[in-house]
Amino acid sequence: MNTKMHSTGILLNSIVPLIALLAGLWWMNARGPSWAVENSDPDYIYFFNSLLLADHFKPVWHTDHPGTPSQVFGAVTLRLSHLLQFHGNDPFVFSVLKNPESYMRNLVVVGAALNAAMLFFLGFALVKIGMRPILAIASQVFCALSPAVVMHSFGRFAAEPLLFFFSLGSCIFWAYSLREDSVAIEIRVGKRETSILLSIALSLIFAGFACGVKITAFPLLLLGVFTLRTMAQKIIGASIFVISFFVATVVTTPWRTFFGFFAKLLTHKGRYGGGGAWLGGFENICNEYG
Residue 275's pLDDT is what? Predict the structure, then answer.
C-alpha cells in the first residue's frame, strides 16, 4: 500500500514539471532561432561569454548581473556537448561557431530539464514536510504559472533558468527547515536543531548562488536570516550567504565594474539606472498573474 501511494505521489508531482518542460521546449521552437534580432539579446551574450569561459577561461565581458553561474553552466554544457561528439569531430571553438543554434538548443534543453527536476523536488519536499499533495501541486503550478516563467526559465538560455533553479532551491530548503515544528518556537537541542540549521544554511548557499546569477535575488537572504533565532546565528547565516555569492562569482566578475553598475542602479544613473520608479515593473508583475 505504501509503495503504491509513493508511486502515485511521484506521478502526481511529475505532472506540472513535465508540462512546464514541454511548454518551454515548445516555446524554444516557436520563437524561432536565437540569432534573430528580437531573440539574440541576451541569449547570445551569455552564449559567447560561456564560450570564452570554456575556451581556457578567457575573460568574459558581460558581468552586469553578474551572471557567472549561468556562464559556468553554459561553459560546462558546451564542453560536454562537444565531448559527446553531438556535432562531429571539429575542434571545440570551431564546432561551436559552426553549429551555434544546435549548441544553443542543448543549453536550453539542459537548463529546462534542471528546472523541471527542481520543480518536482518542490512538490516532493512540500509533501515531506506535511503539506497535502493537492496543495503541493498547487504550489508547483503557482511557480510555473506565469507565461514569463515558461518563456524565460524553460524556453531560452539567459540568466533566468539558473535564477529560477537556485531561487526555488533556496525556498525549498527554507521550507524544509520548518517541518514538524516552527523555528520561531523553542527548538529542541540536539539532532533536531542541527537539522534545522543545516537546512537554513543550504537555503542561504542557494540564495548566494541565485544572487550570483542576478543580484535581484537578494531578498532570499532576508528569508533565511530572519528565520534564525540568535544574533550569532544570523551573523553566521549572513556570512554563509556572502561567501556563497563570492564563490559563485569569483570566476569571472570584476568587482569594481559590477558594484559600480549596481551603484548606478540604486542612484538612478547611467543607461540602466534612469527613471523615477523605485520598484519598477510592479504593474507588469500584477498583469502576469491576472
Answer: 57
Eight-class DSSP state of 215: G
Query: Which grid coordinates are listed for 162?
Result: 539558473
Here the cell at position 226 is 530572519
Question: Could you give the C-alpha distances from 230 to 187, 193, 233, 236, 237, in angstroms and in order?
Answer: 12, 13, 5, 10, 10
Reported pTM: 0.85
Residue written as cell 512538490?
A: 123
Tell me the C-alpha distance between 142 and 152, whole Å: 16
Tens of pLDDT, residue by residue over 177-210, are: 876 544 433 344 445 566 778 889 999 999 999 9
Which DSSP category does 156 fall into?
Answer: S
Q: How many other CB atoms sit within 10 Å of the CB of residue 52?
A: 19
Residue-wise pLDDT for 234-256, tens only, equals: 999 999 999 999 999 887 767 66
CA angle 143, 147, 150 (to 5 degrees): 70
Domain ranges of the chain: 2-253
* Contacts for 79 with CB less than 8 Å, ≥ 6 apart: 54, 92
Residues 62 and 13: their CA atoms lie apart, in Å, by 37
Q: Which residues contact 285 (CB under 8 A, 6 or more apart)?
A: none
Tell me the three cell numbers of residue 142.
503557482
CA dist., res. 290 & res. 75, Å (int):
37
* Interior angle at CA 13, CA 12 and CA 15, nearest 5: 70
